[in-house]
Design a protein that fits this description.
Layout lengths: L15 E5 L4 H12 L3 E6 L2 H14 L6 E4 L5 H15 L5 E4 L17 H16 L1 H5 L5 E5 L23 H25 L5 E5 L8 H7 L4 H17 L4 H4 L1 H8 L8 E4 L9 E3 L4 H4 L1 H15 L7
Parallel strand pairs: 1-2, 1-4, 2-3, 4-5, 5-6, 6-7
Antiparallel strand pairs: 7-8
Length: 315
């Protein structure tokens, strides 16, 4: 694994992948690589225009089935339900891979259409609901996997079970992002535990891209209305990109490894192997202690069901 690259991915012909946030950044790179290895790729995107542009790009890379677009707004549970139904219909309930990739990072305070704090609702609740809703299709796949993206921000993160949507406490963008990405990691391992307990062959794993140059940072800056704040955040982001960030070709490797490598096991977590897990080739790393805490996993599972109104699967 020390110098594993996309060239090491085995042939994906006959496999179908659903990738959220596939219109740009890590999601687009993941879609291009999998399509280039023969997979049928469903691009789940919020913007129809940007999705169409990405679809053309992925189609140029495809060596197998023609890629398709699925409309998905993770900040709207109606859209999540519709996207899951579309994916199940398109695949005939035979889905081999779900990559929960999309997200927003440290944006100004906002709410989803269902009233959730924007980062918790988009990065976590939308993906959890989508995963449960497409589980029948994953059961119909072959050696199916769910890959959920977390972040280094999960390390200091904490889940506020009493006020997860910042309805009473003061909102802090970085704290909310850490909570959402920790929730992603906790969910991935709780899903793995429940799949194993149910005797399912589906793997649930997690990955994070380290410090990778994507559109998240610029979108973060744009979310702030105050021009001074926007300028400070944008400047800091630009400096970080130059000094520390790696490109999406490297940044996507942990999730690609999690999605395709033959030696992956349920509950695994992959990250760049360089200093501080910021950049480099993919390697297996330890999850944060909270993700291994079964009481936290069970509590998040129940909270997610309560907030989304989606029936957990497996129960």
């Amino acid at each position: 694994m020390s110098t594993w690259t996309a060239d090491d991915i085995p042939d994906q012909t006959g496999r179908t992948a659903l990738i959220t946030g596939a219109n740009s950044g890590l999601g687009l790179r993941t879609a291009q690589v999998l399509a280039g290895k023969g997979a049928r790729v469903l691009l789940a995107c919020r913007s129809a225009e940007r999705g169409a542009q990405a679809l053309r790009s992925v189609a140029q890379a495809a060596t197998g089935a023609t890629p398709e677009l699925v409309r998905l707004d993770l900040a709207d549970l109606v859209s999540v339900r519709e996207a899951a139904a579309t994916a199940r219909q398109l695949t005939g309930d035979s889905l081999d891979l779900l990559v929960n990739n999309a997200g927003v990072m440290a944006v100004a305070m906002g709410r989803t259409k269902d009233g959730f704090e924007l980062q918790f609702g988009t990065n976590y609740l939308g993906h959890a609901a989508l995963t449960w809703l497409v589980m029948p299709a994953l059961r119909g796949g072959t050696k199916s996997r769910v890959v959920t993206l977390s972040s280094l921000a999960a390390i200091p993160g904490k889940i506020d079970f009493a006020d997860p949507n910042a309805e009473r406490k003061r909102y802090h963008a970085a704290t909310a992002y850490g909570q959402a990405k920790l929730a992603n990691q906790v969910f991935a391992l709780e899903l793995d535990r429940r799949l194993k307990a149910a005797g399912e062959e589906i793997l649930s794993v997690a990955a994070h891209p380290g410090y990778t140059s994507t559109g998240l940072g610029s979108n973060m800056a744009k979310s702030y209305s105050n021009p001074v704040v926007r300028g400070i955040i944008g400047g800091a982001h630009s400096l970080g990109q130059v000094v520390f960030a790696q490109g999406t070709r490297m940044g996507a490797l942990p999730q690609l490894y999690a999605a395709t490598a033959p030696d992956v096991e349920g509950g695994d977590y992959f990250a760049p192997r360089g200093l501080g897990w910021l950049r480099g080739y993919p390697t297996k790393v330890a999850t944060v202690p909270a993700a291994r805490n079964e009481a936290i996993g069970e509590a998040l599972w129940g909270l997610t069901a309560k907030l989304t109104g989606v029936t957990p699967d497996p129960v």
